[in-house]
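ok trying this again, last paste got cut off
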Amino acid sequence: MQLEGKIAVVTGAGSGIGRSIAQRYAKEGAKVGVWDLNADGVAETVEMIKADGGEALGSIVDVSSRDAIAKGAAEIREAYGEPHILVNNAGIAPFVPFFEITEEQWDKVQDVNTKGQFFCIREFLPAMLEAGWGRVVNITSSSIQGGSFAQVHYVASKGGVMGMTKALALEYAASGVTFNMVPPGVVDTPALRAAPIDIEAYAQTLPMKRIGRPEEIAGACLFLASDDSSYVTGQTISTNGGRYMGSA
């Protein structure tokens, strides 16, 4: 198993992509901290992992709150020890036309999507640096590579994460801690099904003619959390069915 003996925290793991990442990590031997605001979703993910023979601890965490992050971190440290792997997946992706975005809406998206990742990294990075080994995987979005209609605040927030990831990768390149990102394309999740999108019609515009599955994102995240990625930092694994083929 690729993550035997490792401890991981996956934010936004109460459903969708985050749940699949948490499940895959647990199957590969990691003890997983399942973080989400949705208490029912957290409980379901933990139950699914345990039913499959894995180990997981659920915590109700609002990543826009430093106090909530500190509380969740204390819980996983008490149960398992210091995490070696952090997947920053929690995020919100509202659709609002540009001139209808309020300042409050702008701030909320930045607080969850960008500042939340910053806070989580600040919480867990010191121990990773002390250990000389760590993996930070930031979930961004294919929208930072190709744009997204009526999502300026969302795309801006994920673009900030891209810049943060590259800056941290450079600053800590010699430390044994890597920072990489996975920008999913259109993936079949509860959030997507609730979005104002004709999913099947959009799928036909993609080179692969289908939307992605959460487990396909989890596969990319597994590689970036493993020893196989030890010489990979500051990189983007564009898991999007061919929607974007550039090098950003």
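PB: full thing came through this time. The chain has a mean pLDDT of 95.
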